[in-house]
Specification:
Blueprint: H1 2-10, H2 15-22, E1 23-27, E2 37-44, E3 56-58, E4 61-63, E5 69-72, E6 76-78, E7 84-89
Antiparallel strand pairs: 1-2, 2-7, 3-6, 4-5
């Protein structure tokens, strides 16, 4: 279904589009107090045995209710579609 919708809207399906489409980011909560630790899990929605031809990265940005950035994580690098865990401290 993801591939069909992507082909319909973008007119193409390639490795980069697949990686962007199937990665899911899960935070330990949706609201945090200053000083709290945010746990982050990034994982594909489904498993793929294909070896990635390229390298990809994703980056977590936390924003306050007014839209100001309060945290920017180091990029997470992906050379395989595998679960990654990370975290951040809220300022």
């Amino acid at each position: 279904m993801i591939e069909g919708l992507t082909r319909m809207y973008l007119g193409r399906w390639d490795e980069g589009t697949e990686v962007a489409s199937i990665l899911d980011m899960d935070l330990s909560a949706k609201a945090f107090e200053p000083g709290a630790r945010v746990s982050v899990r990034v994982a594909p929605l489904y498993q793929s045995a294909a070896v990635l031809a390229g390298s990809y990265s994703g980056q977590l940005h936390l924003i306050d209710p007014e839209g100001a950035e309060i945290y920017q994580a180091e990029p997470m690098l992906f050379d395989a579609l595998e679960e990654q865990l990370g975290g951040a401290a809220v300022r």
